[in-house]
From TrEMBL:
Main location: endoplasmic reticulum
All residue ranges annotated as the GOLD domain in the record: 32-183
Domain of life: Eukaryota
Signal peptide boundaries: 1-22
Record-linked InterPro entries: Emp24-like, GOLD_dom
Regions crossing the membrane: 176-198
Official protein name in the record: GOLD domain-containing protein
Length: 209
């Protein structure tokens, strides 16, 4: 029983740590800043942003994957939310671009607040509880179940990556071995040819019998 409590507490703490993902930064006028993150396949991603408005300045928001596919775009963004589900393991890019007409004088940097969540942390358990009529304890158990499943999936992905890296290393070692054997054969052949050539040369010069 005590071990179960420790496990539940550790999972709860892990969920709390993972759920706090918030970024705040300043964007200079007429500049572009991007944030990148790797996310697994079939993962729900949600986000909320707030941009402090400045006079004569517009900020565009665009979210793309490594192939350039646009997942979310908002021109003259000020405050809002976005959500999408990943189709494959990929690197996703969130870009903020500030635009302002030339000759507008000194414009202060814009403060941008971004809160992104994905996986378990992106799910709205309050809405799930209302739809499925779950009790608070059942909601917490559902949250822990989803978190444990996410951890298992992460370990499975890490295991798969380890297997791929091991296969790559073994393939590379095999190729290096074959190349080394080929190089040694070439060197031995070249050395043998040099010996016979020098022997014929010295015989032709009558330096040796």
């Amino acid at each position: 029983m005590a071990r179960l409590r420790v496990l539940l507490l550790s999972l709860s703490l892990s969920f709390v740590v993972q759920s706090v993902v918030s970024i705040s930064f300043y964007l200079p006028v007429r500049s572009r800043k991007c944030l990148r993150e790797e996310i697994h396949k079939d993962v729900l991603v949600t986000g909320e942003y707030e941009i402090i408005e400045q006079p004569n300045t517009k900020t565009n928001l665009k979210i793309t994957d490594s192939s350039g596919h646009i997942l979310y775009v908002k021109e003259d963004a000020t405050k809002g939310k976005f959500a999408f589900t990943t189709e494959d393991y990929d690197m996703f890019e969130v870009c903020f671009e500030s635009k302002s007409p030339m000759g507008t004088g000194r414009v202060p940097d814009q403060q941008i607040n971004l809160d992104m969540k994905h996986g378990v942390e992106a799910k709205n358990y309050e809405e799930i509880a209302k739809v499925e009529k779950l009790k608070p304890l059942e909601v917490e158990l559902r949250r822990l179940e989803d978190l444990s499943e996410s951890i298992v999936n992460d370990f499975a992905y890490m295991k798969k990556r380890e297997e791929e890296m091991r296969d790559t290393n073994e393939s590379t070692n095999t190729r290096v071995l074959y190349f080394s054997i080929f190089s040694m054969c070439c060197l031995i052949g070249l050395a043998t040819w040099q010996v016979f050539y020098l022997r014929r040369f010295f015989k032709a010069k009558k330096l040796i019998e």
